[in-house]
Protein: Lipoprotein
Amino acid sequence: MKKLMSILCTITLGISASTSIIACKPKSTQQDSDQSEDGPIADSYEEVLSKYKFEVNDIIASHVEEVSKKWFQSASSSESNQEHEFLNSNSLESAIKGLQNNNNQYKLKTVFEKTDGPQNKTKYFNDIQSLLNFSDLKKKVIDLTKKSEYDILFKSLNEDSLININREFFENDPEEAFVQYYKGNFNSSNNDVQQREGNESFFAYANSWLKINLNCNSKDGTLTTFEYSNPINFKYSITDNTALYEFIQSKKSKLKFDFLQDKSSLIDGNNDFTNDYESMIKKFNENSNSIKGNIQNKLTENLENYGVKINTTNYEIETNWSNIKDFWDHSFNANTESKMAWKEKKVNWTNKEDENIYKSNQNLYDYIFKTKYNENAKQEENEYLKSYLSENWNEWYKNYLNSIIDSNTELSDDSNYENKDEVIKTLKKTVNLKFVKIKGLKLEINDFETDLNDIVVGVGYVLNRNNDNTDLSVVDKNSSEFKSVLNNMIDGVESYHKVFGTNKGTDDYRIAAYDGGDYKLWESYSVSELYYDNVHKIYLPLQRIRDKFSDNLSLIAVNNNKQFEARSELLSKGNQKDYQWKIDTDPSNVAWNRFSINVQQSDLQKGFVMDGYYKNNVSQFDFDFKLDFINIRFRTDNIWFNWGEQSQSFWRYKSVIEMV
Structure:
């Protein structure tokens, strides 16, 4: 038996260590069988918990963002006033009776110390749960915990215990929690607002902080609790003055879209996609300063007719995001996936129907994965990318536009918002959109003053502000916008080439080849993270370590500084928000194979080496490659299946992803 030396290089955080392993090449050329290869390997408890926290925090944040849009209500609506146990005129008037106040403001701590305080506290808590739509949030969390990957966290746990509002924190609410209540005649020239004598209007506002608790199994199986990452600021307003309510709502809608309509809130990218965070912050601040005065004018217009004032003394535009991915609410990008085959000839596909779904595009595949990086090469327009972009532009842009319309009822088909068509016309010029919050505004009614929340202003990013005829919903390959997107695609691919140090490879049947670039990425792959713990300790059964393998290709392996730095450069130099290289998660699309890693000279080829074949019922290998304007599932074939003597001798013990 000929012995092959496989020297494995393992890099852990900041420490380099190499391990020599002896692997024996079997005499038999038949398919290997190893019953221990069945079934997926579980991620560590810490990795599973970290992933769950990320997902559940995102679900809660999105839910709160959505329900908080309804925290200003008219008492005449079916979902407010009498349906609320505490937050209605009668209950509030009774609860604050006899208490001292400051500008009609009452500390909730004091309110709940009265004789009827405990009952009112419970009623208020019930109202909060209702306005938070907590039952719906609970269902979303329960659905998330049913994922099989989270079994270790929730096995045997009662669904009712998975999430709750921290009652202890609520019971001991901080001193700043308060409720405001005003009842009286509004000094208004508007007959709809100025009620008949003796028929007064009320306006109430509640402000509290909440914490969400989440429960799961600890590592030893006992129950453990952690908090949602951010306390929730519950700010709720209600009035029975329908005319005032409708006026304020119309003000909100106008502010939300007026600056888009007159184009004063459009940031001009000068035909360049800017994904540099600092550059975008600078552009945004320049833009926001120019519209700040206009916000004040639009807010105060016609207020005298409604007997109210809006105090704009201390208002500001909120900028609480921390990176470019959080910057925009909506972005034009490759939001649908294309399916392509890596070769013109499709060999022995498991499902013949797929041959019509996956378009052959070897030229584009080879350009992305088999082009040698040359830093001195002049950037040229790439026909393969150009064709891919032109085929997908209309669908991508339609999805971008629909995501904005679907999340803003003012723009829906059945909306009566008067400027809807003009706003949508302007939106068709944008490639990014954000609704920024205006905070610090105060609503004044006679001597009563309260916070005016949920005011937002739409800010759009355009590539060519001076082109009034721009309509990006229809592709125009000669437009400056199309060329800007194409240049962004080329920048992204070339940045990938540079960071990985891509090359052609020694033969045509390698799915990729690279030297690891300046960051020596081959040294960043930790064998201790990737091998399955069997007797050999060198094999990488792909089905078992698929997610970790994808993380390494995507440069997001846990606690890996080298990959973090490489990814940061790929994104910044390539002007990208996102980069992914991930193996498909559907077992029917990914062959069962066993790899080893070899990064030093030996009898084996270098790279990720095909070491064994398993379960000969899948003959292809799918993976996804994503940049901002590339979203493709590539199907590779032929080398993943044991066709007998020829495949054993030709592909086994050769590198599938080659180190060059």
Observations:
- The longest strand covers residues 3-12.
- The chain is about 30% helix and 25% strand.
- The CA atoms of residues 66 and 407 lie 9 Å apart.
